[in-house]
Amino acid sequence: MGYETLSSIEDAEQREQVHKQITSNGKLPPNRLETLSLAFLFAFILFDVLYTRCWIRDLSLVWQPDWVNACIGWVHNNLTLPPINENRKLFNLYFSGNSADTKLKEYFGDEWAFLASPFGDAAMLYHFIRVVMFIPILAALSIVLWKPLRWLGMQQIDPRNIHSVMSFLRSCAWSLIFAFFMAIGTWGFLTNANWFTLGLIDQEAWFENLYINGLYLFIVFGIRFFYGWFVFWKNNFLKFLAMFRNKYRTQI
């Protein structure tokens, strides 16, 4: 049964019940918004591959017009370089002790040499694109995964389904977990200017960096979870208002 069949049901209540039933069974086809979101995600993945394999050659940009230089310059102007505890800005460029940053040190020596190299421009442009596309990617993933998350067990921990003190406490505990991963993911995607840099050099590292993109999923899980809290408190607030109004009318 698809959207055309649903629209043929005249009774609104019956149509809603049928919609919920086939949605819970995973039989409802994607709507237009979900299809557009899937197309957007596919286009971004395709762009990512083309950027790393075509736009960058010999560790430098093959095409660098004025608008690209303006984007790179904006990142430079908002970049924090070692020592990182001085002149704190939006983005960080810091080679830590992990294996990826060790390889970058082998290539460039230090952060300043990296930034001054032609490849530094390519990496900063890539970070700029990642920052600009952060919200659209999250929005598209949230639209695509909103219904599947329900089938993956989100219903069991969804604050909208709180029915006891224990379920309330359990949801509070999950809130801390989701808030942690949302904070780590958002901080990394938006501020760490060299998080994906090695993948621009090494194709094998590009595939290894896919696990970092998994943080998008944790953020989407968190968005859906905290939306459940919003619905929970909204419903309780409306119940309180209804109870207050009934009590006020009774007194009158």
Lay out the secondary structure.
Elements: H1 3-7, H2 12-24, H3 32-55, E1 56-57, E2 60-61, H4 66-77, E3 79-80, E4 91-92, H5 99-108, H6 111-116, H7 118-132, H8 134-157, H9 165-191, H10 198-201, H11 203-208, H12 210-251
Parallel strand pairs: 3-4
Antiparallel strand pairs: 1-2
Helix pairs in contact: 3-8, 4-7, 8-12, 9-12
From the structure above, extract its key features.
12 helices; 4 strands; 252 residues; mainly alpha
Helix percent band? over 70%
SSE topology string: HHHEEHEEHHHHHHHH
Strand order, sheet with most strands: 1-2
Major pleated sheet: 2 strands, antiparallel
**Strand segment count:** 4
Taking pLDDT < 50 over at least 5 consecutive residues as the criterion, the unreliable ranges are: none
Mean pLDDT: 82
The number of helical segments is: 12
Q: What is the overall silhouette?
A: elongated
Cα end-to-end separation: 51 Å
What's the gist of this structure?
The chain is mainly α. It has helices at residues 3-7, 12-24, 32-55, 66-77, 99-108, 111-116, 118-132, 134-157, 165-191, 198-201, 203-208, 210-251; strands spanning 56-57, 60-61, 79-80, 91-92. The strands form 2 sheets. The chain has a two-stranded antiparallel sheet. It has a two-stranded parallel sheet with strand order 3-4.
